Amino acid sequence: MFIDRIATGGHGAVASQFWLAASGATWTFPHRNITMSGIAQGTVVIEAGSTSGAKMQVRVALAWRPPPM
């Protein structure tokens, strides 16, 4: 699994609100975006559709310290 290569390869870290064996699903993306907004230094959105999760991530980023760019 890709997550195993990241965690054991010495090249990164895995941050998740879910069990490591959990597979991605549509309902998990908002949770992931919230986590990324909380730990990121900033948020950059180049282009986003009207129902894009990127817009939700920017709203969360505005509530946290990192300013959207």
What does this protein look like?
By secondary structure, this protein is an all-alpha fold. The protein has one domain (21-69). 42% of the residues lie in helices and 0% in strands. Helix 2 packs parallel to helix 3 (53-63). The N and C termini lie far apart (33 Å). The mean pLDDT is 77.
DSSP helix count?
3
Helices and strands, in order, run as HHH
| Topology, number of strands | 0
Oligomer designation: single chain
Structural class: mainly alpha
What brief labels describe this structure?
69 residues, mainly alpha, 3 helices, 42% helix, globular, DrpA_SLOG, Putative Rossmann fold nucleotide-binding protein DprA/Smf involved in DNA uptake
Secondary structure layout:
Layout: H1 2-8, H2 29-39, H3 53-63
Helix pairs in contact: 2-3
Pfam families: DNA_processg_A
Protein name: Putative Rossmann fold nucleotide-binding protein DprA/Smf involved in DNA uptake
GO biological process, one term: DNA-mediated transformation
How would you concisely characterize the structure shown here?
It comes from Saccharothrix tamanrassetensis. The protein is built from three helices and no strands. With 69 residues, the chain is mainly alpha-helical.
